[in-house]
Design goal:
Chain A: Pfam families: F-box (PF00646), FBA_3 (PF08268). The complex is a heterodimer. Chain A has 6 helices and 16 strands. Chain A is of the alpha+beta class. Chain A folds into 2 domains: about 60 residues, no CATH class; about 190 residues, no CATH class. In chain A, the strands form 4 sheets. In chain A, strands 4, 5, 6, 7 and 8 form a 5-stranded antiparallel β-sheet that branches. Chain B is mainly α. The longest helix of chain B is centred in the middle third of the chain and has 22 residues. The chains are: A alpha+beta, B mainly alpha.
Chain lengths: ~270, ~180
């Protein structure tokens, strides 16, 4: 009962606030609290559900987010999650704490070591399934729609090798598939719905392999400048190599080429609720 | 100019003195001063005598500045500083000290109970002191973020106008959302 008095005095004070100040406070709240406060009253429900309010709330949030897919082998487990740094939801000043939100992932698929590639709002990983009774493995591309957070897989046109890479070419997914030490096929997914692939290029790496005998290099992007180029990064030498898909030749340098890194950004907001 | 005194009268008829430079931290007071209505006392019918000294304390700290931490705490310490060019490292250090000092000051300044918090927020709103309004709003938000809907209704004196069924449904939606974010 001792609480009652303090409740009563509290009741008096905050209720004196004009609507505009209540809004100022609400807009500073994390999404988690706002979802909970929707049931306070119809007024609050309307306010918090208002797209304009969601916009205003989003302006306040400045967390750093990342998407991480992770698998561990002992014991075998798979986790794909949204990693959050400095999120106000987390409490504290959030400077160094991170949070996992685990997404449903298709657990049977193993991720290959190449980085995911974002094409048209969809992240792509190379994956494969190991069949116990068979020696060969089936290759797949794992897709995650960043907006809906839904996963699906499509079959790769060829069995996977450890030197598989996914790239983007003219808005389509492109599979960099080595067939031998110095021969690579480029498969383009020209119809994602029908899962139709087409082998668009076949590249010989012989000249470059000789030149970089003790180094290895891997593709990082396909750009047009204006002819289509595969950009390779030569590890250790920290050197970029360009392969001109039109002429079929390697080139040392390309002036005026602007490279920028690509990030997929996810922000926790009311807009998706 | 900095020594010009302004007199403020609280809602309960008590008079307080403040330097003009400090008073300029408030947009409302600044407009009154610039409007030339300085003869006598400025009445503040919305601010009581237990809140006004607190407001004045804030204005003194932020006098002549509109909330940007850059200029804060510049007063008196090293006025020659602006003449010195490009001593970036030193300047950075001093800036850091200033910001740290200000944070510590704000922490001590904001140490009061809820009653004062909401009254101070209202005063800051009325007097258009943006920095103080932001401080109080942030604090209020941090205080209520973990509360239950019931506690919020109590706090803001709101009666739930949902039917029990509707409320049940809302809680289900919230639970779903919570499950989805279970790793927060």
């Amino acid at each position: 009962m001792a609480n009652q008095k303090s409740c009563r005095s509290r009741r008096r004070i905050a209720s004196d606030l004009p609507q505009e100040l209540v809004m100022e406070i609400l807009v500073k709240l994390p999404v988690k609290s706002l979802v909970r406060f929707k049931c306070v009253s119809k007024d609050w429900f309307t306010t918090i559900s208002d797209p304009l309010f969601a916009e205003a709330q989003l302006q306040q949030v400045k967390p750093v987010y990342g998407l991480i897919c992770q698998q561990s082998l002992e014991p075998v487990s798979y986790k794909c999650g949204v990693f959050t740094l400095g999120d106000r939801e987390g409490g504290g000043d959030g400077n160094s704490c991170g949070f996992w939100r685990v997404l449903d992932m298709l657990a049977a698929y193993k991720l290959s070591y190449c980085e995911p590639k974002a094409v048209n709002g969809v992240l792509h990983w190379m994956t494969y399934i190991e069949q116990e009774e068979r020696t060969e493995v089936d290759g797949y591309v794992l897709l995650m729609d960043i907006a809906s957070e839904e996963f699906r897989v499509i079959r790769s046109p060829v069995p996977p090798t450890s030197w598989f890479f996914v790239l983007e070419m003219k808005g389509s997914l492109c599979l960099y598939s080595p067939v031998s030490y110095d021969q690579v096929d480029l498969w383009v997914l020209y119809d994602p719905v029908k899962q139709a692939w087409k082998k668009q290029f076949s590249i010989s790496l012989i000249s470059e392999s000789r030149r970089h005998e003790k180094f290895w290099f891997y593709p990082i992007a396909v750009v047009e400048n204006p002819s289509p180029l595969i950009i390779f990064l030569c590890n250790l030498k920290e050197e970029l190599i360009f392969y001109n898909l039109d002429t079929g030749e390697f080139e040392r340098e390309h002036k005026g080429l602007c490279l920028s890194s690509m990030n997929a950004v996810h922000v926790n907001s009311l807009i998706r609720c | 100019m900095s020594s010009t005194k302004i007199f403020l009268k609280s809602s309960d008829d008590k008079t307080f003195e403040i330097d003009e430079t400090a008073a300029r931290a408030s947009e409302t007071l600044k407009n009154i001063i610039d409007g030339g209505c300085l003869d006598g006392v400025i009445p503040l019918p919305n601010v009581s005598s237990n809140i006004l000294p607190k407001v004045i304390e804030y204005c003194k700290k932020h006098g002549g500045d509109n909330g940007s931490s850059k200029k804060i705490a510049n007063g008196g310490v090293d006025k020659d500083k602006e003449i010195l060019p490009d001593y970036d490292e030193e300047e950075d250090k001093r800036e850091k000290v200033r910001v740290d000092e200000l944070k510590k000051w704000e922490e001590e300044y904001m140490d009061f109970d809820q009653q004062v918090l909401y009254d101070l927020m209202l005063a800051a709103n009325y007097l258009h002191i943006k920095g103080l309004l932001d401080l109080t709003v942030e604090k209020a938000a941090s205080m209520i973020r973990g509360r239950t809907p019931d506690q919020i209704r109590e706090n803001f004196n709101i009666n739930s106008d949902f039917t029990p069924e509707e409320e049940e449904e809302m809680i289900l939606i919230e639970d779903e959302w919570d499950d989805e974010w279970a790793f927060d």
